[in-house]
Amino acid sequence: MSFIERNVMLTKQDKIDIFREMTMIRKFEEKAAQMYERGNIRGFLHLYIGQEAVASGFMWPLRSDDYVIGAYREHGHALGRCASPRAVMAELFGKSTGVSGGKGGSMHLFDIKRRFLGGTAIVGGGLPIAAGIGFAITYSGGDQICLCFFGDGAVNEGSFHETLNIASLWNLPILFVCENNLYGMGTAVERASAVPNLHRRAQCYSMAVETVDGMDVMAVYDMADKLISQVRETKHPIFVEAITYRYRGHSIADPGTYRTKEEIEEWRRRDPIVQYGSKLMDEGTLSPADIEKIQSDVASEIEAAVKFAQDSPLPQPEALYHDVYANAI
Ligand SMILES: Cc1ncc(C[n+]2csc(CCOP(=O)(O)OP(=O)(O)O)c2C)c(N)n1
């Protein structure tokens, strides 16, 4: 996992690292589900399985001083932004060594060193925060951008419309990424949105809009590389809709009976990691043995993360009074 500068062609090692990162996100989540079932993780747990190409493809072209904000399905974003799997797992376990000191849990991952300014449990809640970050960048004369992830459900929230309006009016350097996984809890997009082509909802705020196949990591990377530099240069926001799919239910408690097995199978056939792995094998970047080795190395790293989380202490009661106020960015 690393940051690269824009317009640098992906090297062979970058491509391998992207594959490794997507594998890490997938296996980390599978392990988190298991840990939840064993009672090591409490509260809510929203899995990102199926959407890995969006997190990896969008974050790979970012600079280390750019900002990222997620929503509540944000384990993949935190890991893609280079947060350590140990610190993310410890956060899920509610331990003091977690990215948010064990006080946030699954929906409130936060890593200031990597400028990952959090998940948020409120649908659409990250958008106004992104506007604040964008304004702070502009006000301080910086050339960073803010990458803001949210789900299709957020497009029906007032905060979405207020944020896009002000971001366009004030020329805030934000790339809005809607991860359209076709459902908000159990409700299909076309049953919730009068205009189901969600990018059209953003068009009326006078900004460029794009759509991308969120199951194809290289398509996402190319789009992200282009749009991130465009936002950086023009200081004007852009909206992109990534069409993707979550294989699991809305949260771990949701059996997902509102979708047919056939529909899920259809999307699984386009699995972003399998597709990308085949492409890398076809072009000779990876062999089947390399893929197996990556998978087993990642599995060992995750086992170590679980052990670290298990062995870590719970936060002390006085931690309640820490991290209440922060310095301005
Ligand atoms: C303001 C607000 N309304 C309702 C909820 C309850 N809620 C939690 S998740 C969710 C669905 C959101 O779906 P989407 O934004 O598409 O994200 P996805 O689950 O697809 O990642 C809802 C309605 C909430 N957390 N916040």
Structure description:
This protein is α/β, with parallel strands linked by helices and 329 residues long. Helix content is 44%, strand content 10%. It has twelve helices and seven strands. The chain has a five-stranded parallel beta sheet with strand order 1-2-3-7-6, sandwiched between helices. The protein has a two-stranded antiparallel sheet with strand order 4-5. Strand 6 (208-213), helix 9 and strand 7 form a beta-alpha-beta unit. The longest helix has 26 residues, at 12-37. The two termini are 25 Å apart. Residues 1-7 have low confidence and may be disordered. The structure holds thiamine diphosphate.
Poorly predicted runs: 1-7
> Could you estimate the helical fraction of the residues in percent?
40-55%
Widest sheet: strand order?
1-2-3-7-6
> What is the approximate shape?
globular
